[in-house]
Amino acid sequence: MKIVVIQGPNLNMLGVRETNIYGPMKLEQIHAQMKEVASQNGAEIEFFQSNLEGELVDKIQECYGEAQGIIINAAAYTHTSIAIRDAISAVSIPTIEVHISNIHRREDFRKVNMLAPVCASSVIGFGPFGYHLAMMGMLQIMNEMKAAQDAQNAQATQA
Ligand code: DQA
């Protein structure tokens, strides 16, 4: 069971960038906490950050056949990227999107969300804790998928 965490543009600047909005935590600290939760739950986890839209699309495509869950903060591309939306649809892997800030309480252009309709869920406005909530949600989705698979296997053995 593998989860890939994909971080979009400027999230490598967390801890420095607009700390009044995004807080003082660095991306490495957020990832260290997620890694801890993953290992406690027997899940493999991989982290990827890029400032380039195409690299984010490539990474989502690479998840196909490799990962069972994606947690993504596409940052500014959330509001503009049909390419990232199409990539999420294409791989058909349960995806949870995270936003550290409450995008609905900010500028109007941040209220447009190209990705939410193709994601299993969105975690918005909890600060860096949102990544932990997304991990909890993803583990739940995976447990449900495994239970459904087990039930199907049991039925097949009975038949
Ligand atoms: C963000 C919100 C986006 O509007 C912004 O462009 C970001 C970060 C968030 O996590 O709150 O870079 O995705």
- Lateral strand order in the biggest sheet: 2-1-3-4-5
Q: What's the gyration radius in Å?
A: 16 Å
| Mean pLDDT level | 97
Q: In which range does the helix fraction lie?
A: 40-55%
Order of helices and strands: EHHEHEHEEH
Query: What is the strand tally?
Result: 5
Low-confidence stretches: none
How many strands, what sense, and barrel or not for the largest sheet? 5 strands, parallel
* β-strand amount: 15-25%
Q: What structural class results from the helix and strand content?
A: alpha/beta
Shape: globular
Put simply, the count of helices is 5
| Small-molecule components bound | 1,3,4-trihydroxy-5-OXO-cyclohexanecarboxylic acid
**Head-to-tail CA distance between termini:** 28 Å
Describe the 3D structure.
- The chain has a 5-stranded parallel beta sheet with strand order 2-1-3-4-5, with helices on both faces.
- It is an alpha/beta fold.
- The protein has 5 helices and 5 strands.
- The model has no long low-confidence stretch (mean pLDDT 97).
- The structure holds 1,3,4-trihydroxy-5-OXO-cyclohexanecarboxylic acid.
- 1,3,4-trihydroxy-5-OXO-cyclohexanecarboxylic acid binds next to loops.
Question: In terms of topology, how is this protein built?
Answer:
Blueprint: E1 2-7, H1 19-22, H2 27-40, E2 44-49, H3 53-62, E3 69-73, H4 82-91, E4 95-99, E5 121-124, H5 129-158
Parallel strand pairs: 1-2, 1-3, 3-4, 4-5
Helix pairs in contact: 2-5, 3-4
This protein binds 1,3,4-trihydroxy-5-OXO-cyclohexanecarboxylic acid (DQA).
1,3,4-trihydroxy-5-OXO-cyclohexanecarboxylic acid (DQA) is lined by residues 10, 73, 75-76, 78, 99-101, 103, 110.
